[in-house]
Design brief:
heterodimer; A: alpha+beta; 2 domains; 8-stranded mixed beta sheet; 4-stranded antiparallel beta sheet; 13 helices; globular; B: alpha/beta; Rossmann fold; 6-stranded mixed beta sheet; 6 strands; binds iron/sulfur cluster
Chain lengths: 390, 261
């Protein structure tokens, strides 16, 4: 789809119109997924009206901590990234790939029937979807499961005006304003009158917007939105200097600081599970008891498990330090060589949802402070011990 | 192996819950019965066919001299010995006696203490005889149990992962109770297998499936101490059904030593 210019046909509508937007998308056959409060967190799932949305609620996030609070306004999107992103709808945690019978018959499950519409995609999440597109669609083999979910996807993005405690999209260049690839993007304005400034990113998005009651955007709407988004850029809860981080991590492959992280890291996999760009999976064959057939099931996997790097004779990354190094080096460094893009979009989830609060922005700072290149220790090669990046 | 392999279940110090997991496989039990001849299964039938057997499932821990002898005999009778449950793989909740004065209990509880012949410890089966596979859980998960039986019958490796509970917890889409509710959860150091049941019901994980493959209990303990969990409560958390499993045992001992110091 062709991306239209950001100001093309910008319109303003009131909060009640969000209901009409959901209805319009449902009428067009989409299953609309959006934010809801589930188990004291903002969790994406099916929404049928604005009463499902977390109106007047914000989240407070810090390392290993997430709490919801009431706001003193009726903001609809007054929170930031929740426990898990949109990944589970596009690249599901468990998928039966095929069923094979002993007589040689192989059957594939039918693709998802209804197309999906995501309501409330943040800039970092939009960037993460593009990263997963690179990995799962634009490599030598396109993943059919991801493709069937992704191809018909409708995206309603929301620019961030109040970043969270662990956000750092300003450092990764992926936010706070939605970049390319949305159908509609909105800014929620809470000044004097509560309203939304919306712009279309695709022809389909323009068509949906045209079906909603709205007025053309004025310069004061644009000015306010621009100011809030600009302020958001300087209000990030975290920041990280990623300049030269690839060289930094490669040159510090044997920095003793990895051991310091390993003393804290539980190798629990949470950071990889919540990361919107991590894509790794494992496959399991589940035979029936009588061996008449088996299902091949694909499951989310993580480089923090021992089985992940198991080859004949044992795991390549047996120490936790090697596993953390794999994760961090892949996200921030080798991803570039592998996919031509960074693997981190600055959503902060790995910081918030790490049960012991390990913070990759802080760890990058520690590597800068202890950079082996300044302490002149001869290093044999980029990865002399226990495996390198994939 | 004989034409139809034989399966026998032996019970040691335990509650029978793990054997019941096998009976609980209502739908699958007929398929199991087609594949194996069930030679000994005290929870299902009093009939006992003599050994040797192809596969033996052992439930329970060793708490008496008599059982320490009996497990050697069972081992002699079977090709494959699979221990099932926290008692058989870690000593069970009854391993709390390992920190206590068992003689004192006997004197207090029994009218005729001299009738009681018991060991001072409850220990896992693997402390006494070689074990081919240890299936964790209190109780074991019935699907994992079926998987292990099927895997041995079909001569393949069982699909039983050793990673943490967090992985399936996240796959399920649970909101983490540790981060979002401040509930102490042992999931990050506990082996998966239960399907992350407790976090799915907004409870912290109790570590029924024992330590995960590389459990960093010390780091989790430090973090929970920082969150205000009292040392005594941490010791109680770690000394559950898998108290005697080495990572939980040594971590709980260290907390006790630390708070004594
Ligand atoms: S590495 Fe962390 S901050 Fe970066 S995209 Fe993944 S979860 Fe978000
Ligand atoms: S190797 Fe690790 S860090 Fe890289 S995508 Fe896979 S799970 Fe994520
Ligand atoms: S960094 Fe945190 S979330 Fe990631 S594996 Fe280690 S302890 Fe778990
Ligand atoms: S609730 Fe417990 S098991 Fe689940 S992710 Fe959080 S710490 Fe892990």
């Amino acid at each position: 789809m062709t991306q239209r210019s950001a100001t093309d046909a910008a319109v303003v509508f009131d909060p009640a119109t969000i209901d009409l937007l959901i209805a319009e998308l449902s009428d067009r056959g989409y299953t609309v997924l959006g934010p809801r409060v589930v188990s004291d967190a903002i969790v994406y799932g099916p929404v049928t009206s604005s009463s499902d949305l977390p109106v007047g609620i914000r989240d407070r996030q810090d390392a290993a901590s997430y709490r919801l609070e009431d706001r003193d306004d009726d903001a609809v999107f007054g929170y930031v990234c929740g426990p898990q992103g949109w990944k589970r709808f596009l690249h599901p945690p468990e998928t039966t790939l095929f069923t094979a019978a002993a007589d040689g018959d192989v059957s594939f499950p039918p693709p998802a029937d209804a197309p999906l519409a995501f309501l409330g995609v943040r800039a970092c999440e939009l960037a993460a979807i593009h990263v997963q597109d690179r990995v799962l669609l634009e490599g030598p083999v396109a993943d059919p499961v991801y493709r069937s979910n992704r191809d018909r996807l409708f995206i309603v993005a929301v620019d961030c005006t109040e970043p969270g405690g662990t956000c750092f999209c300003a450092s990764t260049g992926t936010g706070p304003a939605a970049g390319e690839g949305f159908d509609i993007a909105m800014v929620e304005l809470l000044d004097a009158t509560h309203r939304f400034l919306a712009r279309a990113g695709t022809d389909l998005g323009a068509e949906v917007l045209a079906a909603l009651p709205s007025r053309p955007a004025r310069s004061d709407d644009q000015e306010q939105a621009g100011r809030h988004v600009a302020e958001a850029r300087t209000a990030m809860g975290r920041s990280v200097d990623l300049d030269g981080v690839e060289e930094l991590l490669y040159a510090n492959a044997v920095n003793p600081h990895w051991e310091d992280i390993a003393r804290r890291c539980l190798a629990c996999t949470n950071c990889t599970m919540v990361c919107p760009t991590c894509f790794c999976t494992t496959a399991e064959d589940r035979p029936s008891l009588d061996l008449a057939s088996f299902d091949r099931v694909r499951l989310w996997d993580s480089c923090f498990t021992l089985d992940f790097s198991y080859i004949h004779g044992g795991p390549v990354r047996s120490s936790v330090s090697a596993r953390y190094r794999q994760w961090m080096t892949h996200k921030l460094a080798s991803w570039h060589a592998q996919f031509g893009t960074g693997g981190c979009v600055g959503c902060g989830r790995c910081i918030t949802w790490c049960p012991v609060g390990i913070d990759l922005t802080e760890e990058v700072r520690r590597f800068r402070d202890t950079d082996l290149r300044r302490i002149a220790v001869p290093v044999a090669g980029p990865f002399p011990v226990e495996g390198g990046p994939r | 192996m004989t034409a139809i392999p034989t399966l026998a279940v032996f019970k040691f110090a335990s509650c029978d819950g793990c054997q019941l997991s096998l009976l609980d496989c209502e739908d699958e039990l007929l398929a199991v019965a087609d594949m194996v001849q069930i030679a000994n299964f005290p929870e299902a039938s009093r009939e006992v066919a003599p050994g040797p057997y192809d596969i033996v499932l052992v439930e329970g821990s060793i708490t008496t001299r008599h059982d320490a002898e009996r497990i050697r005999e069972v081992r002699r009778q079977t090709d494959v010995l699979v221990t099932i449950g926290a008692c058989a793989t870690a000593g069970g909740i009854q391993a709390l006696r390992n920190w206590s004065d068992v003689d004192g209990f006997v004197q207090q509880v029994y009218a005729h203490p001299d009738y009681i012949d018991t060991l001072a410890t409850s220990t896992p089966i693997a402390d006494h005889v070689p074990v081919d596979f240890e299936l964790r859980g209190c109780p074991v998960n019935k699907y994992q149990l079926l998987e292990v039986i099927a895997a041995y019958l079909h001569h393949r490796r069982p699909n039983v992962s050793r990673h943490s509970v967090c992985l399936p917890c996240k796959r399920k889409g649970n909101v983490c109770v540790a981060v979002a509710h401040g509930t102490a959860c042992l999931g990050p150091v506990t082996q998966a297998g239960c399907g992350a049941i407790c976090p799915s019901y907004h409870r912290g994980c109790y570590a029924c499936f024992g330590p995960a493959e590389s459990p960093n209990v010390g780091s989790l303990v430090d973090h929970l101490r920082g969150e205000g969990v009292e040392p005594g409560d941490l010791v109680a958390m770690l000394r559950g059904f898998n108290a005697w499993a080495e990572p939980f045992r040594s971590a709980s001992d260290r907390i006790e030593e630390g708070s004594r110091a």
